[in-house]
Amino acid sequence: MELFKLLLLVISLVAFLSAPIAALERGGKLGSKSSGLLEIDSTIFSRHLLNDSQPQIVESLSDGYMSNAALEEAISEIGQRCGHICNIYSIGKSVKGFPLLVIEISDKPGQEEAEPAFKFIGNVHGDEPVGREVLVRLANWLCNNYMKDPLATLIVNNVHLHILPSMNPDGFDMRRRGNANNVDLNRDFPDQFYPLNDGLTQRQPETKAIIKWVEGRQFTASASLHGGALVANYPWDGAQDGSSRKEYFACPDDKTFRYMASVYSRSHYNMSLSKEFEGGIVNGALWYPIYGGMQDWNYINGGCFELTLEISDEKWPKADELPTLFEYNRISMLNLVASLVKAGIHGRIFASNNGGPLPASVMIKGSDYGVNASRIFGDFHRMLAPHESYEVAASMSGFKSKTTKIFLEDKAVNLDFVLDPEENQEQFNRFDHNKSGFLSMYLDYFPIIFLISVLFLCFLLKRKAIFKFLKQRQPQAQKSPTLAV
Length: 485
Hints:
The protein has 485 residues and is an alpha/beta fold. The protein contains 13 helices and 19 strands. Keywords: Carboxypeptidase, Glycoprotein, Hydrolase, Membrane, Metal-binding, Protease, Signal, Transmembrane, Transmembrane helix, Zinc.
């Protein structure tokens, strides 16, 4: 009997240790969150996915929403009608090959400028389509109101806005949360608190496209649009111990994220009036922890301050509610993008020896997450909460770092840095400059040097010919007569 109890205890222990790690999922109405699982396989790390536990979207509910083909046509139409401020491009394809199309809006679309960049991403979850509809309406509104509305004009002239209406077109088409491989894309990113995600080789093409997109551009801030709640969510999304325990876990830029979330919430029709979330904002780990989320990855790896915006209590509301939902969120979206110009610090970094721009790093004391200046213009843009003092440092290999203190009020601060080369670097630059100067001078005078060389060679050849001719014309000497003996 004792042996039997011991055997049961061992079996229970093994079952407990091999149980999958549950991560609560966002979705559904408030208070009705489904769960997704991450499981450790005995041979390889793999993702264990549950079928979506949410009710299947009935076809009648889809009436009035754009199909994927209609979405592509709408994006193309915006590009044609608003080509003076729009650039349409693709960052990749979904599992089923649907293009992930982006609408770039700027007074100089498709060109590099010393301006901050913002991105909106909609339809991360296939069964949360409000974002894709709202974002297409936002692009149309900006196009129609440029040079008419002050806020629209400010954004177009001073920000590069990138809008990806649908990150998960396959999930939308299949009326489910995950993509065509049934993967929750908002659990598919590398995670600082959950190394298991870093070892996954089967990362989804939609996730890879976002990662490549962020790594290839310098986004200052961004937001993804979801449905099923009404709140602005900010990092961290998980806890350091990787647990599912709900508790506030602040990132180093907590004040800045709270400020950004409040900009959205207070501009919204009723988000800030929430009885569940104070001020209509919430720390992700306090709401419920997730791992592999997109917003934390953006902040850590891209220096991009991202929010997760839940913009509709219903995941899939009736289509006739979409115009109202857009109006409820329009000013919030515009104010959030405009905050890139109205808040934070902006500047450029130059080298003192030649005045050239430097892609230096800008760090804030107390935060491990900095931003890099661009290689072309040396410009940087860093979100910061107002009414705070900051110590800002600019540094780059081969140059002496510089630090300054500022107090940020209600307006953005322009802050330029001029970095001095280190002594050994300065000597190298001087030698390199001298070498470059000699080479430049040689190239400038090359035609003259070449002509003189040719003339000198001709002179030598001609001289040799004349000498040979004179030698041939000289009379031969008479032979001495032989004397008879």
